[in-house]
Design brief:
The protein is an alpha/beta fold. It has one domain: 3-Layer(aba) Sandwich (Glutaredoxin). It is 36% helix and 29% strand. The protein is built from four helices and five strands. Strands 1-3-2-4-5 form a five-stranded mixed β-sheet. The two termini are 24 Å apart.
Length: 108
């Protein structure tokens, strides 16, 4: 995993995502999910290329089931985009790098 990705859990979700002034992309994933594993290098590349004001995070749904339930994550991978503590958009399933970077540019 890229050093530019913040690993989220129950303890740091609020401070890293909800209280952040940045645009935050959260990859909801699970270790047993094939498409999630295929998305790892894409999310790593996006994290390594982001400018200030954009944060890239990952949340393992098995380790943070309450957060996944709160945001209605029924299947993974799911990508949620937060700004000002609110969900601004969401994408479900495998996504291309271009689709994710376009969404970040649109919401920034």
């Amino acid at each position: 995993m890229s050093e530019n990705i913040t690993e989220l859990n129950e303890e740091n979700f609020a401070s890293e995502v909800l209280e952040s002034q940045d645009l935050v992309m959260v990859d909801f994933w699970a270790t047993w999910c094939g498409p999630c594993r295929m998305l790892i290098p894409v999310v790593d590349q996006i994290a390594d290329e982001q400018r200030p004001g954009v944060k890239v995070c990952k949340l393992n749904v098995d380790d943070a089931q309450a957060i996944a339930a709160k945001y209605g994550i029924a299947s993974v991978p799911a990508i949620l985009f937060f700004k000002g503590g609110e969900v601004k958009d969401r994408l479900a399933g495998m996504q291309s790098k271009n689709r994710l970077t376009s969404k970040l540019e649109e919401l920034a």
